Amino acid sequence: MGLLDVKDLSFHFVESPARREAIYRLRYDVWVTELAHAQPLHFPKGVVTDELDAVSLHAAALRGPDPVAAIRLIPPTGKGLPIHRVINVRFSGRPEPTGEISHLVISKIYRRRKEDGPYGAEPYLRQSEGGSLPDQGPLAMTLRGRKGPRLILGLFRLIYQASKQQGLTRWFCLADVKLFTLLTRYGMPFRQMADRPADYPDRIPASMLISEFAQ
Fold first, then answer.
1. C-alpha distances in Å from residue 156, one per residue of 79, 104, 135, 139
2. What is the pTM of this model?
3. Residue 88 resides in a domain
4. Is residue 1 part of a domain?
5. Higher pLDDT, 163 or 148
């Protein structure tokens, strides 16, 4: 099963406490257990969550009742967005209604190719971009016919719909470098708005006008 096999999935916003808890456990499984981005002792309950989860919208890809991928949209808050703690965000003119996209997580069962990283971006990027596609020449038979990262695109379409309903006009995102390249290639023209933070050298502070989303 690969990242393209989404016919057995459904995409929904998650509101019930039980399903949100399942998302937090998925984060733990991927970020702590699989990728070792944090120490288990910091998450004794086996979940990864923070105070912003309570006010965020959570979009999930469900396989039956279980989330296998998720992403969150943080709405504008009086205390600012998390990215404001990382970079100094300034725009000329009146501030726009802006939300921040974060915490994209995808279960390992949908990243089974040897080259797959945490987002499964590699099969859609060229080798010079850290992916598996050749920079020149024809594609290998195993790489032909791929229609794009439909799981990720399905999550972003949900976030897009909710953003329009809430009157948001812009997204911020502190994006992984490969994910940034993938999103811009598949209809989400994020633009880098600052240098990579010293504390997050593999992340790109990015901004996008929601009206430019290509569905």
1. 25, 10, 27, 27
2. 0.88
3. yes
4. no
5. 163
